[in-house]
UniProtKB/TrEMBL annotation:
<keyword id="KW-0653">Protein transport</keyword>
<keyword id="KW-0813">Transport</keyword>
<comment type="similarity">
    <text>Belongs to the adaptor complexes small subunit family.</text>
</comment>
<protein>
    <recommendedName>
        <fullName>Coatomer subunit zeta</fullName>
    </recommendedName>
</protein>
<dbReference type="GO" id="GO:0000139">
    <property type="term" value="C:Golgi membrane"/>
</dbReference>
<keyword id="KW-0968">Cytoplasmic vesicle</keyword>
<comment type="function">
    <text>The coatomer is a cytosolic protein complex that binds to dilysine motifs and reversibly associates with Golgi non-clathrin-coated vesicles, which further mediate biosynthetic protein transport from the ER, via the Golgi up to the trans Golgi network. Coatomer complex is required for budding from Golgi membranes, and is essential for the retrograde Golgi-to-ER transport of dilysine-tagged proteins. The zeta subunit may be involved in regulating the coat assembly and, hence, the rate of biosynthetic protein transport due to its association-dissociation properties with the coatomer complex.</text>
</comment>
<keyword id="KW-0931">ER-Golgi transport</keyword>
<keyword id="KW-0472">Membrane</keyword>
<comment type="subunit">
    <text>Oligomeric complex that consists of at least the alpha, beta, beta', gamma, delta, epsilon and zeta subunits.</text>
</comment>
<dbReference type="GO" id="GO:0006891">
    <property type="term" value="P:intra-Golgi vesicle-mediated transport"/>
</dbReference>
<dbReference type="Pfam" id="PF01217">
    <property type="entry name" value="Clat_adaptor_s"/>
</dbReference>
<dbReference type="InterPro" id="IPR039652">
    <property type="entry name" value="Coatomer_zeta"/>
</dbReference>
<dbReference type="InterPro" id="IPR022775">
    <property type="entry name" value="AP_mu_sigma_su"/>
</dbReference>
<dbReference type="GO" id="GO:0030126">
    <property type="term" value="C:COPI vesicle coat"/>
</dbReference>
<feature type="domain" description="AP complex mu/sigma subunit">
    <location>
        <begin position="51"/>
        <end position="164"/>
    </location>
</feature>
<dbReference type="InterPro" id="IPR011012">
    <property type="entry name" value="Longin-like_dom_sf"/>
</dbReference>
Length: 202
């Protein structure tokens, strides 16, 4: 059998909390479908998203959380999927790939996710902080993986693309005088600059 030449390598990215019941442990879940299949091939079970309904996804997540709670390694095979995960405070970060997928690639994705969240959330990757900064978390995941295709694994690059603009880059409105005298001074300054520009160009 020929190896798959698709760039689609991530089936799902999950962030689950460990301090809630397994039925309500989901903080973030994104399942990816392969963008396209070969026209000459029949779609196989591996090429289609196996967890199409919310009920199937919740059952998968519940079983995954129960299985990884007792694990000491970071890579497991669960439900015919390669799952790499990292524990951070009270949350678990999961990257799920097909059974044929390269574990090292998936492990680099979960490390990039962990390190990016650590940078963005200032070393406070927990349930409360993730919920308060949910926009940054979703943007970071979209920068790392798009449609199941790994785009970037450098956490510094991802964090720089996602993070908010620094406050010092915003214009400083405190030094602008909006009184009547300030507006008069601004008008005089503009008139003087305009006259000087016209004089130089004649």
């Amino acid at each position: 059998m020929a190896p798959s030449m698709s760039l689609h390598s991530v089936v799902a990215i999950l962030i689950l909390t460990t301090d809630s019941p397994p039925d309500s442990a989901r903080l973030f879940a994104k399942y990816y479908n392969p963008p396209h299949t070969n026209a000459t091939q029949q779609p196989t079970q591996a090429s289609q998203q196996p967890y199409t309904s919310l009920k199937e996804q919740k059952a998968f997540e519940k079983g995954l959380l129960e299985k990884t709670a007792k694990q000491t390694s970071d890579v497991i095979l669960y439900d015919n999927k390669v799952v790499v995960f990292k524990m951070e405070s009270d949350v678990m970060l999961y990257v799920v790939g097909s059974a044929e997928e390269n574990e090292i690639l998936l492990y680099n994705v979960v490390l990039a996710l962990r390190d990016t969240l650590s940078i963005l959330l200032k070393n406070s990757t927990d349930k409360r902080t993730i919920m308060e900064n949910y926009d940054l978390v979703t943007l970071a995941i979209d920068e790392i993986v798009d449609d199941g295709i790994v785009l970037e694994t450098d956490p510094v690059m991802v964090a720089s693309r996602v993070s908010k603009a620094p406050a010092q880059d915003a214009p400083n409105m405190k030094n602008i005088d909006l009184s009547e005298q300030g507006i008069q001074n601004l008008w005089e300054f503009g008139k003087k600059q305009g006259m000087e520009f016209v004089r130089r160009n004649l």
